[in-house]
């Protein structure tokens, strides 16, 4: 089992990790020759939100080498806290956190990552190399313990099955959305998310004191492949609705850090699925998929 | 019930900030009573029947204000907390600009209406910062159909952006004490910059429980010479005795804090005091004034012969206010504590 790579986009890896850290304490990373999968299974997060994402190796890494006797795949689990600490350090060294270079930043820096063993404990070793302001070579090494997942545990991790989504809609900027949803969280515990094929999206929060509905209009509806099976398409103005916990919704919205386009799918009374694309939609470097379970309400 | 009648109230504005600012100033309780009249809105909050806070919101604060008086008084109770949350839904009416002023008196653990749980709003810091520079305003349309109807508030921050509709439950108003202040029975009337007064409140010792207001009229006998007094301090004392002064006293665990305001032109805009006045008030009630004083320009302090205190806090004038008009006044009324012997 060998794994060694240079991290070409430390900033993005940092942002992805921060989004995941909002959801859970630990996450599963499945490394394969072409893709890196970040997985937060449902039992890991308190709100039942799951993440199943895939990112192209080339989006994050460079000089990527992986070998194992299981299809050249490695599954490992790690604590996001420790990963974040390392990435924060790496990010500030590379200097992408702040546009203005801080004193800690190094020039000509590169960050490499290796799977190592320390005694019997497998570790991820990060090495940050670069030159200080006085042109001295500096090398910083961080090691974090990881757990290699057994094939049995791997087979237990399955992406949730969802019915055919009732509607897809391109979400407004996640930052704008998060700002509003975080204010709704003072009002109610759940939010009703509804959308129709006219491009209307509604968020409704209800409490004993106030009913609040925020409406977006003329959002894009992506050409879905849903109508392949010749079902009559629903009326344009029919609203499809799912209620989710605001807490869970907000956790997904932390992914505004990643900053791509996001598409939401509503599976009525089942779940809300959100795809957050890394980079442009057509040449996506990857996609983070969030499954937010529906909350059953009386009305 | 198909009530085709015209709504009792339709009020519109392009910028909810002045409105939110006024409401936040009296946000010491979560529920408030709103009264609609020809001259605007009056929102009243009472704290355990001892402190009464009213926000007078003039029609001038709205770009349009239509009131069709119903047969019954246009008064209802609503959740002030929820209303403030709604006004700030797009983040343009928040208290973030309040900054130091709101966080300083943190010994007061009260959660103010319209404010998130402690800590929750901090997450938004990033957002607030990123928005600075591009000035965005939230426009509002408020409508009330009459008794039994919800108060409906429609908000949007730009033409292409999202819109938010809020249906605020209205309740039968709780009975208010709202004791009237008798202008004819007044023993002290002064107007000064609220900055002066606000700074004074910040300087009071946190451990004090009573705040004493003392006013002496002009042309008093000079105080007896103190052996330790310097020439300049003696001159100051004599000057104050000549022109009259207003004094705030507070006794804390570590001594007495005394703040003097001489009746000088640069301090007092107005100072009417015929005889010496001395009354004490509950300091926790004074602490509730902090929020209101923030961003205000002037205060008017009046005391009745009985010690009943009325402090009016004036907000800065917005554009196109008529002469003699105002851009909102916050009024706080409280009774004096019994004198200690």
Automatic annotation (TrEMBL), chain A:
Read off the InterPro entries from this record: DNA_clamp_sf (IPR046938), HUS1 (IPR016580), HUS1/Mec3 (IPR007150)
The UniProt keywords, alphabetically, are:
Nucleus
Has UniProt tagged this entry with the keyword Nucleus? Answer: yes
Which Gene3D superfamilies does this chain map to? Answer: 3.70.10.10
> Which GO BP terms, alphabetically?
double-strand break repair via homologous recombination; meiotic DNA integrity checkpoint signaling; mitotic DNA replication checkpoint signaling; mitotic intra-S DNA damage checkpoint signaling; nucleotide-excision repair; telomere maintenance
GO CC annotations?
checkpoint clamp complex; nucleolus; site of double-strand break
Q: Where does it reside?
A: Nucleus
Question: Can you tell which superkingdom this protein's organism belongs to?
Answer: Eukaryota
Family listed:
Belongs to the HUS1 family.
Protein known as:
Checkpoint protein
Automatic annotation (TrEMBL), chain B:
Q: Where is the composition biased (Low complexity)?
A: 94-104
Entry keywords, A to Z: DNA damage, DNA repair, Nucleus
Q: Where in the cell is it found?
A: Nucleus
Q: Main site of residence?
A: nucleus
Q: One Gene Ontology cellular component annotation?
A: checkpoint clamp complex
* Region ranges (Disordered): 94-134, 217-236
The record's Gene Ontology biological-process terms are: DNA damage checkpoint signaling; DNA repair
Please list every transmembrane segment annotated in the UniProt record, as residue ranges.
none
Which Pfam family, just one, is annotated for this protein?
Rad1
Residue span of the signal peptide, if any? none
Question: Which family does the similarity line name?
Answer: Belongs to the rad1 family.
Q: Which PANTHER family match?
A: CELL CYCLE CHECKPOINT PROTEIN RAD1
**Name used for this protein in its record:** Cell cycle checkpoint protein
Q: Which organism is it from?
A: Kwoniella dejecticola CBS 10117
């Amino acid at each position: 089992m060998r794994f060694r790579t240079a991290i070409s986009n430390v900033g993005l890896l940092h942002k992805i990790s921060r989004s995941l850290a909002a959801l859970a304490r630990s996450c599963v990373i499945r490394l394969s020759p072409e893709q890196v999968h970040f997985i937060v299974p449902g039992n890991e997060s308190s709100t039942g939100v799951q993440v199943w994402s895939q990112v192209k190796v080339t989006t994050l890494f460079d000089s990527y080498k992986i070998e194992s006797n299981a299809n050249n795949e490695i599954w490992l689990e790690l604590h996001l806290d420790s990963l974040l600490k390392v990435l924060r350090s790496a990010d500030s060294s590379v200097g992408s956190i702040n546009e203005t270079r801080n004193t800690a930043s190094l020039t000509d820096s590169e960050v490499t990552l290796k799977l190592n063993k320390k005694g019997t404990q497998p570790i991820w070793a990060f090495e940050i190399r670069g030159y200080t302001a006085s042109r001295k070579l500096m090398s910083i090494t961080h090691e974090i313990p990881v757990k290699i997942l057994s094939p049995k545990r791997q087979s237990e991790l399955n992406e949730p099955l969802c019915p055919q989504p009732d509607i897809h809609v391109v979400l407004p900027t996640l930052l704008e959305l998060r700002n509003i949803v975080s204010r709704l969280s003072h009002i109610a515990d759940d939010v009703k998310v509804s959308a129709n094929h006219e491009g209307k999206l509604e968020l409704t929060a209800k409490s004993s004191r106030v009913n609040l509905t925020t409406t977006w209009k003329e959002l894009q509806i992506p050409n879905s492949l849903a109508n392949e099976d010749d079902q009559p398409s629903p009326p344009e103005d029919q609203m499809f609705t799912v209620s989710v916990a605001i807490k869970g919704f907000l956790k997904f919205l932390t992914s505004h850090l990643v900053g791509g386009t996001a598409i939401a799918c509503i599976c009525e009374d089942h779940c809300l699925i959100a795809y957050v694309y890394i980079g442009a939609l057509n040449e996506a470097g990857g996609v983070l998929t969030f499954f937010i379970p529906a909350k059953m309400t009386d009305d | 019930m198909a009530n085709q009648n015209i709504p009792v109230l339709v009020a519109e504005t392009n910028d909810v900030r002045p409105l939110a600012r006024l409401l936040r100033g009296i946000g010491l309780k979560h529920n408030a009573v709103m009264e609609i009249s020809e001259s605007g809105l009056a929102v009243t909050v009472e704290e355990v029947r001892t402190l009464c806070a009213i926000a007078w919101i003039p029609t001038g604060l709205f770009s349009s204000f239509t009131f069709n008086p119903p047969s019954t008084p246009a008064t209802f109770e609503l959740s002030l907390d929820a209303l403030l949350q709604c006004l700030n839904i797009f983040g343009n009416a928040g208290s973030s600009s309040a900054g130091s002023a709101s966080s300083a008196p943190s010994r007061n653990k009260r959660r103010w209406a319209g404010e998130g749980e402690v800590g929750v709003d901090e997450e938004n810091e990033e957002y607030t910062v990123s928005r600075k520079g591009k000035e965005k305003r939230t426009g509002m349309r408020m409508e009330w159909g009459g008794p039994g109807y919800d108060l409906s508030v429609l908000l949007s921050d730009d033409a292409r952006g999202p819109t938010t509709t809020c249906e605020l439950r209205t309740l039968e108003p709780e009975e208010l004490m709202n004791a009237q202040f008798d202008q004819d029975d007044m023993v002290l009337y002064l107007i000064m910059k609220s900055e002066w007064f606000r700074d004074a409140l910040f300087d009071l010792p946190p451990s004090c429980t009573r705040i004493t207001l003392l006013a002496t009229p002009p042309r008093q006998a000079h105080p007896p010479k103190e052996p330790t007094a310097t020439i300049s301090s003696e001159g100051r004392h004599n000057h104050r005795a000549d022109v009259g002064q207003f004094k705030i006293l507070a006794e804390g665990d570590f001594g007495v804090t005394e703040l003097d305001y001489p009746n000088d032109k640069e301090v007092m805009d107005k100072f009417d005091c015929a005889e010496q006045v001395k009354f004490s008030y509950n300091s926790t009630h004074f602490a509730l004034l902090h929020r209101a004083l923030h961003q205000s320009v002037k205060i008017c302090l009046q005391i009745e012969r009985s010690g009943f205190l009325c402090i009016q806090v004036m907000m800065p004038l917005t554009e196109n206010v008529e002469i003699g008009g105002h851009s909102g006044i916050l009024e706080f009324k409280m009774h004096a504590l019994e004198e200690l012997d």
